[in-house]
Amino acid sequence: MRPAELTSRRKSRQLFIGSVPVGGGAPIAVQSMAKTNTRDVSSTVAQIHLLQREGCEIVRVAVPDRNAAKKLGEIKKEISIPMIADIHFDHRLALEALEQGVDGLRLNPGNIGSRERIAQVAREAQQRKVPIRIGVNSGSLEKKLLKEYGHPSPDALVDSALHHVRLLEDQGFDLIKISLKASDPLATIAAYQKIAPLTDYPLHIGITEAGPLFAGGIKSAVGLGILLYQGIGDTIRVSLTADPTLEVKAAYHILKALGLRRRGVEIISCPLCGRSEVNLIPVVREVEERLSGWSEPLHVAVMGCSVNGPGEAREADVGIAAGKGTSLLFRKGKVIREVKEEEMVTALISEAELILKNQ
Ligand code: SF4
Fold first, then answer.
1. Which atom of ligand 1 is nearest the CA belonging to 273?
2. Ligand 1 pocket test: which of 268, 269, 278, 308 has the largest number of ligand atoms within 8 Å of its C-beta?
3. Whether residue 240 is found in the same domain as residue 295
4. Among the three residues 257, 278, 293, which one is the final residue of a domain in this structure?
5. Range of 251's domain?
6. Ligand 1 centre and the CA of 279: distance in Å?
7. Which amino acids bring their CB within 6 angstroms of ligand 1?
8. Nearest Cα to 54, choosing from 221, 284, 292, 285?
C-alpha cells in the first residue's frame, strides 16, 4: 500500500528570520514563545536555551513596555536562534526592538496608529531586512470588522490580515509573514484555506489559546495537521498552557507524523492487550525519557508480545519484543540477542545509543 501523499506545498516567497529561511520550500520551521518576563534577562535566556535544546528554531518574546524592549539586545546576545519581538499598539516599542537588533517583529500595523508611524516602522525594518509578521487573532479583531461580520469569522480574519498587509505594502514593505489564529481549529483551518490562494506571503500557522497540554496538543494536531496535509504552513507554533518546551515537542510530533521533519527518537509502542506478559507502560516511559536528549532521528519499537512485536521491532532501527522472562532485541531488522526481562530497558537503550552515536 502506498502511504498517503501530502498535497504539494503551497508556493510562497522566501524570507529570512535571522538565518532561518521561511517559505519558498524551506523546511517548516518550529517556533515557540518565551513565557518569562522579558525584563528578566537571565530567566528569559535560560528558557530560550531550553527551547533551543528541544529544537526550537525561532523564538518570540513579548514586549509589553519600554523596559522590556530595552532588554532585547542583552537577550539576543546570549542566544543562538533568531528572536521575534511581539508588539502591540506602540510603534516606539517596535523602533526600539529594531534598534536592539531583533530578527523579526510581530505587529499589526493597523494597531499602531497613523500612517506616519507605520511608515517609520516599515522604513526601519526594511533597512535592517527584518520581516514583520501580521498576526491576526480571533480574540483581538478590529471592532469595525466584528460589527461587519458579527463575530470573528474566517472571512473577518482574512479581511483583517489583508488590510494590515496593504498598510505595509503601501509603504513599499513586503518582508511579510501572516498568521490568522482562532482558538477553534475549524475556523482556523477555514481562514488559512481562504487566504492561501490570495497571497504568496509565507504563512505562520497555529491554533491560538489551544488549551492545556493534552487537549491543546490534540486540538493543535488536528488543526495544524489538516493544514499541513494540504500544503499550507511555513512556520508552526503549538500554543499550550504548559511548559514551552512541550510546545516544541508537540510541533515536532505533528511534523514527524506527516513526514515533514525528522528529529529525535520516534517510539513505536504497542497499546498492550491481554496477550502482553510484561507491563510496558513504565518501560516506554523510561525509554522515552532516557532517549529524549537526542536530536538525531531514530525509530525505536517497544512491543508487548511475540504476535505483532517482532514485525514492528524488525521495521524499527532498534526494537524489543518483550516476553515473560526473556525478550528479543532487534537491530536493523535482525534479532541480535535474547535479553532477560530485567535487562530489557538497559539493553534497548544501549543499542539505541550505539546507533545514534554512529550516525
Ligand atoms: S503487540 Fe502483542 S501485546 Fe501488544 S497490543 Fe499487539 S498483540 Fe497485544
1. 8
2. 308
3. no
4. 257
5. 15-257
6. 11
7. 270-273, 275-276, 303-305, 307-309
8. 292
Instruction: Looking at the structure, tell me whether residues 233 and 290 fall in a common domain.
Output: no
| Last residue within a domain, chosen from 241, 257, 273 | 257
Q: Domain for residue 5, yes or no?
A: no
The rounded Å distance from CA 260 to ligand 1 centre is 29
pLDDT greater than 90 at residue 227: yes
pLDDT at 3: 61
For residue 321, the ligand 1 atom closest to its alpha carbon is 1
214 and 273: one domain?
Answer: no
Tell the residue nearest (CA) to atom 8 of ligand 1: 273
Q: Tell me what percent of the residues of the chain surpass a pLDDT of 90.
A: 77
24 domain-assigned: yes
* Averaged pLDDT, 138-147: 88
Q: Ligand 1 centroid to 17 CA: how many Å?
A: 46
Same domain, 293 and 217: no
Q: How far, in Å, from the CA of 236 to the mean position of ligand 1? A: 34
**159 and 282 co-located in one domain:** no
In 3D, which of 349, 298, 293, 294 has the Cα closest to residue 320?
Answer: 349
What's this model's pTM, rounded to 2 decimal places? 0.93
